[in-house]
Amino acid sequence: MIFKNKTVFITGAAKGQGRTVALAFAKEGANILAFDLAKKIEYPAYNNSSSNELIQLKSEIESLGSKCEIFAGDIRIEKDVIDAVALAVSAFNSIDVLFNNAGICAYGYAHEITEKEWDAMLDINLKGAWLAAKHCIPIMRRAKSGVIINNSSTGGMRGMNRLSHYAASKWGLVGLTKSLALENAEYGIRVISIHPTGVNTPMNDGLAFMEGSTPVEIAERSAGNLLPVPWIEPEDVADSVLFLASDKARYITGCQFVLDAGLLTR
Ligand SMILES: NC(=O)c1ccc[n+]([C@@H]2O[C@H](COP(=O)([O-])OP(=O)(O)OC[C@H]3O[C@@H](n4cnc5c(N)ncnc54)[C@H](O)[C@@H]3O)[C@@H](O)[C@H]2O)c1
What we know:
Helix 5 (about 165-185) links the parallel strand 5 (about 145-150) and strand 6. This protein is α/β, with parallel strands linked by helices and about 270 residues long. A seven-stranded parallel beta sheet has the order 3-2-1-4-5-6-7, with helices on both faces.
């Protein structure tokens, strides 16, 4: 139980990687603040999380013997973030780990996407991570410890066809990560970006649905992994996140942690 009595704030926790990471931390005894939009949004069309998913996650975490508070909110809205952080602190007294994971993805050539689509991508994937960090950092500074893990992508280390807005948001997370690491190292706070290749989650299913394709085709098209797999599993991401959040990674900060099945070697 390496995270017993620690509190982990996870954004985008209702589905996919966020959900799997929440359960993995809960198995290690952590208290979880699960933040998610928990409703359908206009863009991208596949994103239809529901509050039921959050309620179900809470009961799964509690059945593991850990505590969970859920918060349905939009990571782009500062008031939602402030209220969720206040809920975590009042319920658990601390925030030890922030997993900035909420994100969206959708295809579109840069010369064809709309201003609204660009703004949604950057606001959810990048501004949302800054907002959550902004309001967790003062709590971590007071405790003189904390870990922030930003879920970027291999798209945060390369260009991606028909994903300029997505790649721009994910490269932005690298700049945010390195700057937050610089600003907060003396307060015992580590900040790391992770860069998974395609992951087998509802995001991939959603992209496939919108493209009239299959999830495996989507993963293979955007990835090209060196190891012979179309994608990795959310559990692979959870293993890395738990390692990075643990004391075993105590001198890892400000860097890009790649879990790409060898993709970026090409
Ligand atoms: N799936 C992949 O292939 C892949 C690969 C590399 C990186 N990533 C990144 O990993 C992260 C998680 O992706 P996933 O694959 O689990 O996706 P997912 O679509 O399965 O889950 C994303 C979650 O984020 C939530 N969310 C979306 N907008 C939100 C908002 N405005 N406020 C609060 N919550 C919001 C959704 O409701 C959903 O529950 C994303 O940042 C994604 O870009 C995904």
